[in-house]
Amino acid sequence: MVNLMKLRLISRRFSSFSSNPLRVCVVGSGPAGFYTAEKLLKTHERVEVDIIDRLPTPFGLVRSGVAPDHPETKENLPQIVTNQFTRVAQNERCSFFGNVSLGSSITLAELREMYNAVVLSYGAESDRSLGIPGEKLPGIYAAREFVWWYNGHPDYRDLDPDLKSTDTAVILGQGNVALDVARILLRPTAELAKTDIAVHALNALEESSIRKVYLVGRRGPVQAACTAKELREILGTKDLGIHIQQADLVTTPADEIEMKNNRIRRRVYELLSKAASTGHARVPSQRELHFVFFRKPDGFLESDGRNGQLGGVRFEKTTLKGDDELKQVAVGTGVHEDISCGLALKSIGYKSVPIEDLPFDSYKGIVPNIGGRVLADASQDHMKYETGLYVCGWLKRGPTGIIGTNLYCAEETLACISDDIEKGILTSNSPKPGKEGLAHLLDSRNQRVVSFDGWEKIDAEEKRRGNLKNKPREKLTTWEELLKVACE
C-alpha cells in the first residue's frame, strides 16, 4: 500500500521547487489511465495531466468490455467508476484528447519531448493465438472482437458474424469473458432489447440460429477461471438447459487442496456441481449450454458441406499433472474427439501491442518494467530505466484482474513517479509545452480532436436516442457518427 503521508510530503516539496507545472501525459483512458490521473491530481498540486485516447469515447473496457445485460443498479461498479472518472476529467488541471492515436497521430518520442512524464496505459488491443491448424478459417473470432461488436465499438461495427448458418457455437475458455459471450448468444433477445447492446448486434441475435453453446476448458471444474458471480448469472438464464458430465466433477486430493486454499474456486465448483445434479431434460427448441472440461483444442476443421468455412473443432483429451505444491497443468492424453460447430470464439487472453520507440516483451505481451518504471535494459547485469516513462494496467502487468485491480496498479506506478520527483529525476525547472504544444501539433496535422465536452455531446445523444426506445442508451457505433456528434 502506498504511504499517502509520504506522497503528500513529496508534493509539498515539489511545489516549492518550481513555479512551472509538472506536465504528465497519460495514454489510454480506461480504468488504469483514469486511476493514474486521479491519483496524480490528488497527490501533487502542481501536476497537470492530459489524457489521450485513440477513440473519441473515454473509459475503455468500462464502455466496450462490460456485458450490456449486467444488472443496472445504483451499486453497479461500471456506473460508479464512470461517474468518478468524469469528475477527474472535469478537473481544471486535466484535459482529454480523444481521437488521438499514439503511433499515427503522434509518436511516443514527440510526447516525451512535450511532457515531463508519460504514463502508458493503453491496455491490450490484440489477442493471443492458439497456433493450431485451421485458425484462419471463416467463422472463428476472438472473443474480444465479438464483445466489441455487441458493445458498439466502432472498429468492429462491421464484424458481421454469421449466426444464421449454424445452431452450434464453441467457446474456447471458461473465464468471465467466455461466460459473457455465451450468455449473450443464449439470452432471450427480448431481455437484451432493454439494455444498451448495439442495435446491429441485437438485430443479428434476433435472427440467430444458435441454440447450443459449448464452453470448453483445458482443465477441470475446480480450475475454471470464472468468478462465482458470473457463473451464477449464466446458470440463472431463463429457459436455458445446463449440461455437465458427472464424471468431470470427480475431484482428486490435489483438487481438494486447491479448493481449500481458494474460496472462489470452491464456490465455482459447488455451483457447477449443483447445476449438474439438478438435471435438465432436453426440450425441443430449448437453448443449451454445455460445460466441457479436460479438453484442449488441437485444430479447427473445415466444413464438409460449406467449403472454406468452419465445420468443427478437434480436441485432445487432457489430464492434470501436479500436486498441492505445484499448479496443476493440463497434459494431453493422445485421445481426440471432435465437436461440430459453425462458430468458434477464442477466449484465451488479450495481448498488448508494441509501438515504435517502446521496449516490449513480446513473449509476455507487456512493457518490461519494475513497479511501473519502464526498463530500457532488462538484462541481469544492468538495469536502466527510461527516464520519465511509466506504465500502468494491462500493458504493465498483463491482461489480468478486474476494474478495481487497476486502482492498486495505479497507486504502485504513482509511488514510482512520486519517488522520482523527490529524487529530482523528474523536475519542471525546464518548462514543457504540454497540452498547448500537443494541441498545436495535432492542429497542424489536421487531426480532429474530441475534447471531454465532445464526449459529453456523444453521451447526451446516445441517452436521448435510448430514451426513445426505453433503453439506457443507443450507442453511436461508427467513427463518422461519433465524430460528427462530438465536433458539431
Automatic annotation (TrEMBL):
Its main location: mitochondrion. It comes from Castilleja foliolosa. It is found in: Mitochondrion. One of its GO terms (molecular function) is oxidoreductase activity. Keywords: Electron transport, FAD, Flavoprotein, Mitochondrion, NADP, Oxidoreductase, Transit peptide, Transport. Its cofactor is FAD. Its EC number is 1.18.1.6. NADP(+) binds at Q174, G175, N176, V177, R218, R219, E230, G401. This is NADPH:adrenodoxin oxidoreductase, mitochondrial. The lineage of its organism: Eukaryota, Viridiplantae, Streptophyta, Embryophyta, Tracheophyta. FAD binds at A32, L61, L102, W394, G401, I402, I403. Residues 23-219 form the FAD/NAD(P)-binding domain. Pfam families: Pyr_redox_2. It catalyses: 2 reduced [adrenodoxin] + NADP(+) + H(+) = 2 oxidized [adrenodoxin] + NADPH.
